[in-house]
Amino acid sequence: MESKLNIQQGILAGIINASEDIIIVQDLDGCIISWNRAASLAFGYSEDDVLGKSASLIVPEHLRGEENELLERVKQGEKIGQFETFRATKAGKLIHVAIGFSPVTNQLGEIVGLSAIGRDIQRIAEEKQGMLAAIIDSSDDAIVSKNLFGIITSWNRSAERLFEYSAHEIIGRHVHTLIPEKLWEEEAMIISRIKRGEKVEHFKTLRVAKSGKLLQLSVTVSPIKNRAGEIIGASKIARDVSQHRLAEEKQGILAAIVSSSDDAIVSKTLEGIITSWNFGAERLFGYHESEIIGKSIYTIIPRNRHHEEQGIINKIKKGEKVDHFETVRVAKDGRELSLSITVSPVKNRSGEIIGASKIARDISEQVKVREDRELYTKRLEKLNHYKDEFIGMASHELKTPLTSINANLQLLQRKLQESAFKGFVTKTLRHVNKLTALVSELLDVTRIQEGKLQLNKTYFDLAELVEECVESIQPTTTHTIQYESKITGAVLADRQRIEQVIVNLLTNAIKYSPHGKQVIVSTEMDEHEMCVSIQDFGIGIPADQTAQIFSRFYRVEGLAPTYSGLGIGLYISSEIVQRHNGKIWVESEIGKGSTFKLKMPLK
Description:
By secondary structure, the protein is an alpha+beta fold. The protein is 40% helix and 28% strand. It has helices spanning 2-18, 37-43, 47-50, 64-75, 121-138, 157-163, 167-170, 184-195, 242-260, 279-285, 289-292, 306-317, 364-416, 422-449, 462-473, 495-511, 569-579; strands at residues 22-27, 32-35, 80-88, 94-105, 111-120, 142-147, 152-155, 200-208, 214-225, 231-240, 264-269, 274-277, 322-330, 336-347, 353-362, 458-461, 480-483, 490-493, 518-525, 529-535, 583-589, 593-601. It has a 5-stranded antiparallel beta sheet. Helix 14 (422-449) crosses helix 17 and helix 15 crosses helix 16 (495-511).
């Protein structure tokens, strides 16, 4: 037990000695029995100097009566709170202290002494002053003091940064140095209020830096008093609010844009709770902001689309933006709205994502137009399919009687010989052949559209085929078809289909050069390809139409005279060539003719 008591006393002694407060314990006779380190620092006496001696050692003579009265009161068990008085140091200097007295009792509760706990008021004041100076010096705000005549008396580092003057340059100068001349009356008003003991808080004004730069400031000015309570100057805290004001202006502009936007602009937390709702959202969804803010975003999302919201929030949490997402939302009256929404993350000043901002645009009309267009497109495709079916059916149905008519006419022509009807039959046969060719072309179109155009590929000499085509066409025209080619080159292709292409190009060259006298045909070859060129000197093709002439049913516009045809010959030729991995194109100039070129791979 005794050992435990010794430990507790040791701990207590350590705490007392480490305290910054002066702690002195004396017995009932006034002799000092305990003296801590703070007492030694304050009075200059060591513990050995004072133990066993009277506490009156540090009490000035004129205050000993006060001391004796206090001791008597404590002996009666009274505790005396701190009061200010003076004590003497070893060097004889008086120091201003605040002391409190308490009775010290033994285990039986008997008063056996008293303790005095005090503080050096001057040292505390100096510490406070030092702390205050450090705070002022390290403040981000400019802190300036001046006397009642406006002369600057102190200037911290932030004031140097803000106004660009060093303390050496500005202390002693009038505060007008920092104030635009037009605002000098403002300073007189502030000083007037300070003299009345008033504080001027968060006053927005302009000041000027050393460089002439105008500063937008918020200033708070407080009176400075001496110990007697007299106002002797003013302390001013100035904060640069230029960026803050700019931010406020931007915020105001942004708020105005949001408020007046025709689009619905809504913000929400990451949990989907609506936090803002503009007038555009009110018009679109029918909810007033007082009805919807604080509610879940699922209020406006159809149940079958709830999964979309979680997907959007997952992207937002990763910092991703959702752009022009087309969806459906529901209005207050139950109407479903087709919307295009853009959702962006909302971040706090630390850069943490705390929510989402959504811009929603009603695209109901655009969706309806698109749906109508898709419907019409499907109808057109269906009609086009019916048309292709009709052409195919008509081609097959016409081909059989035409073949029969053609055969009968040929028999009749041979029987008539020199009869007067021979010319009539010959003319009729020519028209039947033409009609047969047209039907064959329509049948080819149908096969191409259905993917049923068959190719029977064999190796043959393309130059030889061109020569045969020229020889078969030449007797039917007054044009001179000039062809010379000494090259030979075997291509793997459908000979009959390539012959169909060359004949088509030759007949077109003759047809579209009514006043021409000549068609030039040539063949060239390199190690990979053979090229056939058919040149006429006819009417030519407008440059803006050369890319379209290989399209199905396309006919060149603006030709005079107008030429007959269905506009499918070149389309069929192009399809045949492409299915052989070849190329076909035209080079033309109005009034100077056209040159059609066909390239076929050698292998």
